[in-house]
Specification:
The chain contains eight helices and 16 strands. The protein has 353 residues and is an alpha/beta fold. It has two domains: 271 residues, 3-Layer(aba) Sandwich (Aminopeptidase); 61 residues, Beta Barrel (OB fold (Dihydrolipoamide Acetyltransferase, E2P)), CATH 2.40.50.
């Protein structure tokens, strides 16, 4: 597999050629300074041999198979590393989340992968489909990656390392704020100033602060391993090869600087330069008969006034409770018991460290 990869420098093509699995892991040394390891289908670990500067970085994409721009962005980064156009100075784990769905060009195969982390994959009805098995495998590789870092398995290690996980997505529908990030629930820990500044420098100046634990990939890394983790939405879904990649130039530039330990040139933290929201509630679908009152092309972050009826869950109206609530991720077609909508209210500048 590594021979094929080094000939093509195209990890996505290799992944799609074997969407259901590789025979065994393989590794090699690139130019005497970087270890390249194919851990499993869509899972590539890249580690500097000598100049490890203390960050353990996970870049995931394709958790939903039709969200193609982040997949192309990560594949381009991998190609530049393999071509020796850039050289990593931190440990990096690239994850193509759902290879069969990427191969099919569909959001899912059987189930929403980004609702199956933190052990949800093994809750009833258990490991019954490819997404559930994949979620468990991804968790195992995240754990192995973080804990195999120098001192990573020792809670009292004197080695200060930073764990990062940027889970890159695109949204089903358009948005008032084209690029935005979801900051997973922090369980009382303050938000990171440097991370907000990094997002801003990468072209993401809208942030949603989640209000409760979830079963998303970014929450798993944040909660289980103390990673600075985000779900990052980079615009709207387009088919593979039809993305205007110039729209992601700032993200590409900052991710390149991050993994090569180049200066990030972060701006000063200024809350007034962000659009900040707090998730006020998650609407969970309770009935098969579910519908929204707004059109399918209504954008994410569209706001509705108190008393507005957003939809009907069975015969029960979903009514705006705050003075004003904005909506994101409306999806009436999710299964019963899953989130069908997030409602947002403006967030004053949060406590940061």
């Amino acid at each position: 597999m590594l021979k094929t990869l080094m000939a093509s420098k195209d990890f996505l093509a290799l992944t799609l050629a074997c969407p259901d699995g590789f025979e065994q892991p393989e590794s090699m040394i690139l130019a005497g300074h970087t270890r390249i390891s194919i851990e499993a289908t869509g899972i590539l670990r890249i580690e500097p041999l000598a100049e490890d500067n203390g960050k353990d970085i996970i870049l995931s994409s394709g958790v939903h198979g039709n969200e193609t721009a982040p997949i192309e962005l990560c594949n381009s980064l991998i190609r530049r590393i393999l071509n020796e156009d850039i050289r990593v100075k931190h440990r990096v784990l690239f994850l193509f989340g759902n290879p069969p769905a990427i191969f099919n060009g569909t959001r899912i195969v059987d189930e929403n992968l980004n609702r199956l982390f933190s052990g949800e994959h093994s809750q009833a009805p258990g490991l019954i489909n490819p997404e559930r098995h994949r979620a468990k495998l991804l968790e195992q590789h995240v754990e192995a990656f973080y804990l195999s870092a120098p001192g990573g398995d020792a809670t009292d290690s004197p080695i200060a390392r930073q764990r990062l996980h940027y889970d890159l997505h695109t949204a089903i529908r358009g948005a008032t704020y084209d690029k935005f990030a979801i900051y997973p629930f922090r369980h009382g820990r303050p938000y990171r100033r440097d991370q907000l500044c990094f997002l801003h420098s990468a072209g993401v100046n809208c942030v949603l602060f989640h209000h409760e634990p979830t079963t998303t990939f970014s929450y798993f890394s944040a909660n289980e391993f103390g990673a600075d983790a985000f779900t990052i939405e980079l615009g709207k879904v387009f088919p593979m090869g039809q993305n205007d990649m110039s729209r992601f130039a700032a993200m590409d530039r900052q991710l390149t600087r991050l993994i090569t330990d180049d200066a990030l040139h972060l701006p000063e933290y200024d809350p007034s330069q962000f659009h900040l929201f707090r998730v006020s509630r998650s609407v969970v679908k309770q009935h098969d008969e579910f519908s929204f009152t707004f059109a399918n092309d209504v954008k994410n972050f569209t706001a509705f006034a108190r008393g507005s009826v957003l939809g009907y869950d069975g015969e029960n109206p979903i009514v705006v409770e705050a003075e004003q609530e904005a909506i994101v991720f409306p999806n009436a077609k999710v299964p019963i018991g899953q989130r069908t909508l997030l409602c947002l209210v403006p967030e004053p500048a949060p406590e940061v460290m």
